[in-house]
Design the sequence.
């Protein structure tokens, strides 16, 4: 074997070793594909459509109730309406209300007695997404039943107690009073302004 041949063989071996020692880039173990996102969106669309169909069926079963469709994606009707007052709670007000939670079949999940009177600092505390908006359409001394799809309630997680995932809710609310936070604090009618165990958290 001549010198030139040895050089060629050595060069080939060196190139082979170098190419083997180079670390190849690895792809992520998990990847978010367009297909996965599309399937997720389609599942959510189907879920919302099914829940809205169930709510519409409840509405059809009770023609005596004057249901109103909110542009926020929920429905409601007045059980007790106050047509004399025009003021409604706004951000920073303290709302005093009672409520109960049921499923669409009317089965009580949390009673008004269990949930106790609520003190809520409007838009500054976590409550149900639907209820956050619903409180702000109420006049004092009104009672309203809200029908919330699950994404305006406890969503896909539920409340880790009695409300399972993806459950539409009927929330009956009685707004007893509301006043500016400064006034409520001066009157010492605001306790800790914290949510209790059953206070519905926003999702």
Sequence:
């Amino acid at each position: 074997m001549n010198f030139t041949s040895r050089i060629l063989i050595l060069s080939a071996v060196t190139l082979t070793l170098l190419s083997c020692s180079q670390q190849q880039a690895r792809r992520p173990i998990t990847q978010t594909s367009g297909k996965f996102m599309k399937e997720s969106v389609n599942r959510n669309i189907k879920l919302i459509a099914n829940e809205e169909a169930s709510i519409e069926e409840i509405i059809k079963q009770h023609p005596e109730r004057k249901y109103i469709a909110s542009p926020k994606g929920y429905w409601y009707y007045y059980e007790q309406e106050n047509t004399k007052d025009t003021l409604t709670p706004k951000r920073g007000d303290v709302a005093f209300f009672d409520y109960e939670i049921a499923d669409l079949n009317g089965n009580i999940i949390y009673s008004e007695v269990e949930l106790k009177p609520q003190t809520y600092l409007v838009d500054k505390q976590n409550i149900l997404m639907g209820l956050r908006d619903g409180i702000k359409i109420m006049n004092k001394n009104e009672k309203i039943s809200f029908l919330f799809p699950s994404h305006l309630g406890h969503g896909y997680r539920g409340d880790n107690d009695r409300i399972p995932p993806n459950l539409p809710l009927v929330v009956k609310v009685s707004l007893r009073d509301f006043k500016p936070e400064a006034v409520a604090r001066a009157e010492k009618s605001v306790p800790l302004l914290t949510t209790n165990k059953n206070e519905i958290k926003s999702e």
Observations:
- The first strand starts at residue 68 and ends at 69.
- The mean pLDDT is 84.
- Residues 144 and 178 are 16 Å apart (CA to CA).
- The radius of gyration is 29 Å.
